[in-house]
Amino acid sequence: MITETAFIQIVRDELALPLAETDLENDFDKVVSWDSLHLLRLIAAMEKETGKRVSVGKLLSERSLRGIYTLLAA
After folding, report:
1. Could you give phi then psi for residue 27, rounded to 5 degrees?
2. Are 71 and 50 in contact (CB under 8 A)?
3. What are the residue ranges of helices labelled H in 1-74?
4. Torsions phi, psi of 71, nearest 5?
């Protein structure tokens, strides 16, 4: 399992996004510089970090980083 702090750090480091903790709750339309390619890069980074495959289909329906984190932490 990955911690919320580690998840935020991965998003900041791997995606080079200036993510604030409050951005976890925001819809992707409100996250600074978010685009659809960030999701794919995040999935690759999470697989690398955890050593586990990530179900892309489940993550595509999420509209926030909190939703993605919740699925990844489960």
Report:
1. -60, 150
2. no
3. 4-15, 36-50, 56-60, 65-73
4. -65, -40
